[in-house]
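Can you please make up a whole protein chain along with its C-alpha cells because I've never seen that pairing?
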Amino acid sequence: MAHFVFEADLHGLLKLDTPIPNAPPARWQRKAKESSGAGPSPSPAGSVSPMKPANRSYSGSKTPAKTPGKSGAKVQSTPTKAGGDRYIPNRSAMQMDMANFLLTKENDPAENSPTKKEQQKSWAVNLNGFDVEEAKILRLSGKPQNAPEGYQNNLKVLYSQKTTPASSRKHGRYIPSMPDRILDAPEIRNDYYLNLIDWSSQNFLAVALDNSVYLWNHSSGEIIQLLQIENPDDYVSSVSWIKEGNYLAVGTRNAEVQLWDIQQQKRLRSMTSHSSRVGSLSWNSYILSSGSRTGHIHHHDVRVAEHHVATLTGHTQEVCGLKWSLDGRYLASGGNDNLVNIWPSVQGDSGDFSPVQTFTQHQGAVKAVAWCPWQSNVLATGGGTSDRHIRIWNVCSGTCLSAVDAHSQVCSILWSTTYKEFISGHGFAQNQLVIWKYPTMAKVTELRGHTARVLNLTMSPDGVTVASAAADETLRLWRCFEMDPIKKKEKEKANSAKSSIIHQGIR
C-alpha cells in the first residue's frame, strides 16, 4: 500500500514578508441636498429629498477572490505525532500498544477506589440533587425517584414560566419615522382657519400658496401653476377636488368660489354669493358646499346658472371645518364658535335646513372634521388650542363614543382606509403627526419633523401616503399606511375576481 506524507517547510513560512491583506470595513457616504428656502419662489419646484439612498464605497485595496482548490489552498502542517495522514491510514504506523494500554486503563480496578467513588457521588449530588448511580433513567414500574428533602432546582423558575400565546402577541407594522419626500411651500399662509391642500383621485396634489394654486403630479413629479390672482389684496383661502378629480374648487379672500377644469387648465365659472372669505369647501356629487367667515354655509349646484340653492345658518363665527359623509347623507361643519353641526342632505318639512345634531363639548375652534370610511355614522372632530381634544361621535344617536386629550392644538384628522386607525396633525407645542388606534384610542406612533404647526393634512388616492402642510413652508409626504404585501396581493386578487364577475354579468 502506498504511503503518502505531506510536509511543509515551516521555516520557509516564517520568512514570508508580505502579510495577508484583510478587506477594510465598509463605510457609508451620504449626500444630501438642501433647498435654500430664502425669499419667495414662484413655484414649489425646489424640492428637498433627504431620503436619497446612501452610496456604499470601500477604501483601500481588496484581495481578489480565489477559486477554492485551485490557488490559495491552505498549507497543511506536519503532524505532531508519527503516523499516517488522516486520509490514507497506515497500519504499520499505528500505536497499537498505546491503544491497548488506554483500553485496559479504563477497566483498571485501581481507579474504582472508595475515595474516587465518594468524590463522584458528591459531585453528582451537588450538580443533580441526587446520586446518579442510584437513579434510573427509565422505570417500567414503581414511583419515580424523589429529590432529596430541601432540594430546589434553580432552572425551575426559568422553564416553568408560561409563554405568551401567539394570538395575543403584538405584531406592530413598520412605520417610517422620516418623511418620504419634502417639498418647498413658500408663502403658504400661516392661518389656522384655512384649508390649503387637497389630493385628487387622479393623483394631483393641489397646494394654495398665497395668491397662486399649484398642482403637483405625484406620479411624474411635474408641477403646474394652475392660477394666480391678479388682485394683490386677494389670496386663495381654500381648495377642494371633486370626487372624479377633473375639477377643482377654489375659494378666495374676496368671497369668490371658482371652478377650474384641470385638463384644459382654465376657469369654468366664478360663483359669488358670500360676503366674506371662503375658508372651507366640500363636494357632494354636483353640489359644492362652501363655508365663509360670516358663519354661513352655501350649497352651489354647479350645473345650473343660478348656482346658489341653499343657505345653512348654524354658526355665529367662521366655518373652518366642512366635510360631506361618504354616502352623502350628512354634512358636518365645525366653526370658530366651538360648535359641530350635522346637516341633512335634504330639506326638512318646512322647506328649510336645520341641523339634526349640534355638539357643544369642544372648548375651542373645530377645524378637524373627518368621517369614518367603514362606519358611515361615525365622525371624528378635533378642537383648537383651548380644547386640544379629539372626540368620536355617533351622529345618529348624538352620543360621544370616546374622547382623548391630544395635549396640543388639533388642526386636521384623516381616517386610514387600510387600517382601523386615523392620523391627526397638531400645532403648539410639538407640531407633530399622531397615529391613533380605533376604537381603543391608543397612540400608535408620532411623526416629527415640522418646525411649525401643521396646518392641513390630505391623503393619496391609494390611502398609503399622507401629505402635511405646515407653517414652516414645507410639505412632507409620509408613507405611514403602507399595506402589508400579503394583504395587498389578496385585496388585488379579490378586486380582480369581482371585476371579472361584473364583466361576465354584462356579457
Summary: Residues 1-75, 157-170, 501-507 have pLDDT under 50 and may be disordered. Residues 485-506 form the longest helix (22 residues). The chain has five helices and 31 strands. Helices lie at 10-14, 96-106, 114-128, 156-160, 485-506.
